[in-house]
Amino acid sequence: MQKTAGDIAEILKGSVEGNKEVIIRGVAKIEEATSGDLTFLANPAYERYLYSTSASAVIVADTFRANNKLPAHLTLLRVTEPYTAFATLLELAAQKKAPTYGIHSTAAVSPEASVSEKCYIGPLVTIESGASIGTNCEIHSNTVLGDGCSIGDGTVIQSGVIIGKDTQIGSNCIIQSGAIIGTDGFGFAPQSDEQFKKIPQLGNVVIGNNCEIGATTTIDRATLGSTRIGNGVKLDNQIQVAHNVTIGENTVIAAQTGIAGSTSIGSNCMIGGQVGFAGHISVADGVKIAAQSGVTKSIKEPNGIWQGTPASPIKEHQLQQIEIRNLVKNEAMKRITGIEKQLKG
Q: Which of 94, 115, 148 is the last residue of a domain?
């Protein structure tokens, strides 16, 4: 990327305060940026770096007012949402030439599969019978698409992904390396001899449009019906989504979260890392759940914030933590006082 600050301001629909002609060659973190770099300030905790940065330009909010003297060389690009604006620039910087359309000579594509001519199919990809691949898709090396899969237009599947039979993935999705989608759910029936009989998993997985599935995340097929991931859902790395789970539109879930079978999570939720969900519960739209929480019962009120194990409304949880600390502190003081009395004897 090589553009002037003025050019970038036009892209971001922002304004320039400083040298419009300064050349930007790259993007960097504010504490590491050097001459020619563009950075951004969205978190006030990083403001201290602004006054010593070597960056040529920085994206700030329209409302930002400096508390100290800014470096003379620094140009400000003022926008409404600095973080969103910087993400837009990162997209531009990350753009690479699309792979050439075609099927690699080592790929194994069933004659009964339907693959658009405007697709890239990489080395050692396997596409089984009845699979359907839309236009402008990229299927990278060592990926397996099972019987009857369908992949929408513009979807990118990175290397080493396994897509089980009858899985449906929408348009403009990104499936990161090592994800496994559509394998059997964890279904076993206890027997009288204390063994377990496997329950056939006959359903599938349905993923909407504009979703991203993180590396080594697993999404199990339904026992019957479908495991459903709504439009715009973003799943981080190493997430487990069990059979018959439903995740509503535009929900984001951080790494190492586990969702047990038949649980339903609403739309526009935000789930922190390492959250555990019990099975057969529901979570209302707009709920936020703090990292390392354990959700053991349904959350019926929308737009709340929950924390802890078992999860409770965040203010209630924080009050409980204060009471526990005070209790421990008071008990410890009682013991210390008792020991001192004994020693004085």
A: 94
